[in-house]
Amino acid sequence: MNVDNATIEQAAADCERDGYCVIRGFFPVDEIDRIRQRVQRYIDEVVPTIPSRYVMMKDNDDLNSLFRLEGMDQFDSWFKYLTVDERLASLTRKLLNDDFVTRRVEMFGKGLRVDTPTPPHQDGYYFMLKPNNALTHWFPLDRADEENGCIRYVVGSHKKGMRDHEVSDVFGFSLGLVDYGDEDEADCVAVIVDPGDLICHHSLTIHRADGNPSDRKRRAIGVVHYGASCRQDKQAADAHSKNVHARWAQQGKQ
Question: How much is the pTM?
């Protein structure tokens, strides 16, 4: 679709109020089809050649349990177009009130019949930015609903600042909120989306997802943009990532 000013203004208002926004039919169906094909090619041809830390599966012997591909633009130049896509760029500049730097392109999945939840968290705790002003664009390659693990957002949580996190025992999600409780859950809404739809959420917005006990895939592409005026504590971020992956490797998960 053409991202007209009215669409951008409405998305900005929704994101300011709720911490996230949804734009239906943002991507043409044929573009989503091409992305699906390139993801499959990536799995078949690229995954066997890259370090295991960039590929996460619940069961290393079962590709159906694949749930994360990190740094896809780093290992396959085809995905670089998403880092400079002007449709996403226009939204980001408006929603962050800043220019941006692209962090990476990822695939977030829920493996078939893998009933492992994504713990409640704020992306910004991982990013270690000052100020913490970043945006995740998340668009499904398969329908994401309550049966197969759609994202659930705590509405308005981005206005309450960063919450304390602790080490999580969920492989692939190293941190989770310390004190997620009934009040948070009361404000938590399931966001059901179809291929072509786009979700944007702020780095301070609390979100979680249930597992996927179904026989349907739940794949999505994520593109993260940092506000250009932010500064990252890169040393701390790199140290955290190194420690997490070392722990997972020690546990035989990578």
Answer: 0.90
